Amino acid sequence: MRILWIALLAMLLSGCGYNTLQTTDEQIKAGWAEVLNQYQRRSDLIPNLVSTVKGFAAQEQAVLLGVTEARARAGSIQATPELINDPQAFAKFQAAQGELTSALSRLMVIVENYPQLKSDANFRDLQAQLEGTENRITVARNRYIKAVQDYNVTVRSFPSNLTAMLFGFTVKPTFTVENEKEISRPPTVSFDAPKPVVPAK
User: Fold this and answer.
1) Would you tell me how many other CB atoms lie within 10 Å of the CB of residue 56?
2) Scanning 2, 44, 81, 111, which has the fewest C-beta atoms within 10 Å of its C-beta?
3) CA-CA distance, 174 to 124, in Å (whole number)?
């Protein structure tokens, strides 16, 4: 009789979803750590980038200051492990990183007006590093989104939802974008000469 009860208990536990919840939760933590690593990599590039641009385009103070301030605001948010369990804190973090992305995009636009800057070896190296980092951010975000999706499905599905409630597993927030197509396309960092505009006849 005892063996029968043990076998029954094992069957119940194997289908309760607890192990899946643990596995997917760990995947989220690993994915989040990689997202933070790539955002930090980008943040570390910005001082040198701003300094280099400033050497050729010191008059663009407003844009340079915008990048510096956006970086400071993004860095002021402590990305603790608890942040991924707090929808409001997560949204604030996402908004700050989005603001930094926009500030960098504005900086790249003004670069087009400075041919000497575009041809500077140091700047081109920073440009290549930034472009690579933006690609890594996109990959890391997509992996994180997939991990959260798998986890949230488990939390909401029967019978694992009962296990989730019992052990305190709740739905986690994830990255969102207004245009879903942008989720897999990093910001364009291009320094090719713009094509001439042909006036309409």
Assistant:
1) 18
2) 2
3) 33
Would you call the peptide bond into 159 cis, given omega within 30 degrees of 0 as the criterion?
yes
Helix-, strand-, coil-residue percentages of the chain, each rounded to 5: 75, 0, 25
- CA nearest neighbour of 160 among 14, 18, 24: 18
How far, rounded to the nearest angstrom, does the alpha carbon of residue 141 sit from its chain's CA centroid? 5
pLDDT tens profile 137-175: 999 999 999 999 999 999 999 888 888 888 899 999 998
- Its pTM stands at 0.79
Query: Rounded to an integer, what distance in angstroms lies between the CA atom of residue 86 and that of residue 111?
Result: 38
Torsion of CA 95, 101, 103, 108, to 10 degrees: -170
For the domain 26-145, what is the CATH code?
A: 1.20.1440.20
Which residue's structure tokens are 């890391």?
140
Q: Whole-angstrom Cα distance, residue 96 to residue 119?
A: 31
Contacts of 123 (CB under 8 A, 6+ apart): 49, 52, 53, 56, 117
CB 171 within 8 A of CB 152: yes
